[in-house]
Design goal:
Helices cover about 35% and strands about 10% of the residues. It is of the alpha/beta class and about 425 residues long. The strands form 2 sheets. It has a 6-stranded parallel beta sheet with strand order 3-2-1-4-5-6, with helices on both faces. Helix 2 packs across helix 8, helix 7 packs across helix 9 and helix 8 packs across helix 9. It is elongated and about 80 Å long. The two termini are about 20 Å apart. The structure holds oxidized coenzyme A. The site of oxidized coenzyme A has 24 residues, from helix 2, helix 5 and strand 5.
């Protein structure tokens, strides 16, 4: 076993190295905090101001075997909620993302620091007898073990469910795997594999183009979020049952859950064409499976991405425009087509469905005369839902996101 020197971004990461690692190995069993309960089993309502009554997961200890993105997303969320996360890394190697996509020589990568804030790190060789002994002690004193190793890896370390449950019956063992039980359960999986296997890629992109993956990390971060929910639920249930349980999130399932509206459409397809898809209005027949729908809205209110002023040189000068039925009159007035309010070909949502392409082309003639922010202001003033296509640069510089804490500056940590 070796102790860790590899801790990340400073503000929220507790920078504990050798001393801290020793401390981790000597953790004492927690004393139960016996609070006077009122009739419904809850303690008396706190009189402390909100935000000063401790964090939600204070007192919960996580033994974190996670690496890369899916698992670390989950344990970072738990850490933000107050859990004490002890991240176990492989001696001499550490989490592989420490060195991936580095932007500053000698420092842990942003990829690593953005996913591992608020955690403590320790390196333990889980295959060494001494390492195993330390891990068993940690298992006794922790509440949750989180891992996203390749299938079978944890068992090969000797950390089977049976062993863990016997060592600490209260422990929750939470795993991310690529697939659930079935033909692919032994496969290793990364983000885009999950996006493809979970139905997102086949339904993303344009009908006449190849399937597309999205930049949103719905396979990794999405599954980490699902896992965090499973863990918190298991912790809650443990209050009643007194025992831990296994929690498994498969990345394929996580992506499918987020792509559920497309599974809805697959079922609808058996009963006729998907009339809100632009291909319906264009007279193109549907096949057996849900097609890629370009920028069509996934809901009942038709929408599309339209060019705005400057689109010729700015790749993000676009806006998402929704022709929400209750504000159809306002849309007609804005774009100079007041006659569409009463024209039977345009006045009702069903009448508009076969004409969506023409309608959006007409609206675009108007949006192209304005910047995306002008469209945003004008439309929102009359309750028309629109969304500017914001670049990552614009988002990173957006003051309101800094103000709310959605985007925060964190010290880099310990360049080595
Ligand atoms: N001490 C000793 N050995 C350790 C160790 C430690 N502390 N931590 C890890 N190891 C060893 C493992 O035991 C394993 O060795 P064996 O295969 O010989 O048993 C080895 O390191 C590699 O672990 P791994 O199989 O999990 O990692 P990988 O790089 O081969 O695969 C990944 C990575 C992500 C494809 C795989 O872990 C996986 O499919 N995970 C599940 C799905 C998932 O979470 N994917 C999302 C990743 S984020 O994009």
């Amino acid at each position: 076993m070796a102790t860790s020197k590899k801790v990340t971004a400073k503000t929220k990461v507790k920078s504990k190295s050798k001393a801290a690692s020793k401390k981790v190995a000597k953790l004492k069993a927690k004393k139960s905090v016996a609070k006077k309960a009122v009739a419904n089993g809850l303690p008396k309502a706190s009189t402390k101001p909100y935000g000063q009554a401790g964090k939600a997961l204070e007192g919960v200890r996580i033994l974190d075997f996670s690496h890369v993105q899916a698992g670390p997303t989950c344990t970072q969320l738990l850490a933000y909620m107050g859990a004490d996360v002890i991240k176990v890394e492989r001696p001499g190697v550490g989490d592989i993302t420490r060195g991936q996509l580095r932007d500053v020589k000698g420092a842990d990568s942003l990829y690593f620091t953005m996913l591992n804030g608020n955690k403590r790190s320790i390196t333990i060789d889980s295959k060494h007898p001494k390492g195993k002994e330390i891990l068993d002690r940690l298992i006794k004193h922790c509440d949750v073990l989180v891992e996203n190793f390749a299938p079978g890896t944890l068992d090969r370390m000797g950390l089977t469910w049976e062993h863990i449950h016997k060592t600490n019956p209260r422990m929750i063992v939470a795993s991310v795997k690529g697939f659930g039980p079935g033909p692919y359960e032994d496969c290793k999986v990364y983000e885009n594999v999950a996006q493809c296997a979970g139905g997102a890629a086949s339904t993303t992109g344009f009908r006449d183009g190849p399937p597309l993956v999205t930049g949103a990390q719905i396979g990794d971060s999405g599954t980490g979020l699902h896992l965090a929910f499973g863990i918190v639920s298991a912790l809650y249930q443990r209050i009643r049952t007194g025992r831990g349980q296994r929690v498994l999130c498969a990345m394929q399932d996580g992506v499918l859950n987020l792509a559920r509206v497309k599974l809805r459409d697959q079922q609808r397809l058996a009963h006729g064409p998907l009339t809100e898809y632009s291909q319906y209005g264009e007279g193109i027949p549907f096949g057996q499976a849900v097609p890629r729908a370009g920028n069509d809205s996934g809901g009942g209110q038709p929408g599309w991405i339209l060019k705005c002023k400057g689109w010729e040189s700015d790749p993000d000068a676009y806006i998402y425009f929704i022709t929400q039925a209750p504000v159809w009159g306002a849309i007609c007035d804005l774009i100079g087509k007041p006659e569409w309010k009463t024209d039977p070909d345009y006045a009702t949502p069903p009448a508009r469905l076969p004409r969506l392409r023409h309608i959006f082309d007409t609206i675009e003639q108007w949006t192209m005369t304005k910047t995306k922010f002008e469209v945003m202001d004008i439309c929102n003033a009359v309750d028309i839902p629109v969304g500017p296509i914001l670049s990552m640069k614009e988002i990173a510089e957006e003051p309101s996101l800094r103000k709310t804490g959605t985007v925060v500056e964190v010290d880099r940590g310990n360049p080595r």
